[in-house]
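As a next step, we paired sequence with structure tokens, yielding the entry below.
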Amino acid sequence: MAAILLSTMFVVAVPTLRIAMTTDRQNARQTEALMTASNVLERITLKPWDEITSETAAEIALPTSIADQLPDAQLQVQVEPRDDAKQIRVLLSWQGTAGEQLAPIRLTTWVYPTGEEL
């Protein structure tokens, strides 16, 4: 009787633990992706106004440490001039453990020239 109860417990517990571990790993990857996208956005916004261009945005590469953690990670950084401001968009996408495309991280900000740059 105890053997049946123990084997039943393992049949239920092992898949549940596997699902919990997979979910935890996906949450950790999501957090890393969010932090990376935020850091990329901060890096470009700290540049002087004249250096915030599509060309400098294209030069920003995904850190290799993150590329190793996020399967097939793709980083896109776009700068669009708008009247007296520049819109900066960061998109970071990657695949899940089963190869499915996960919802990407998207961050957008606007930068304006300071008084010295007007």
Observations:
- The longest strand covers residues 74-82.
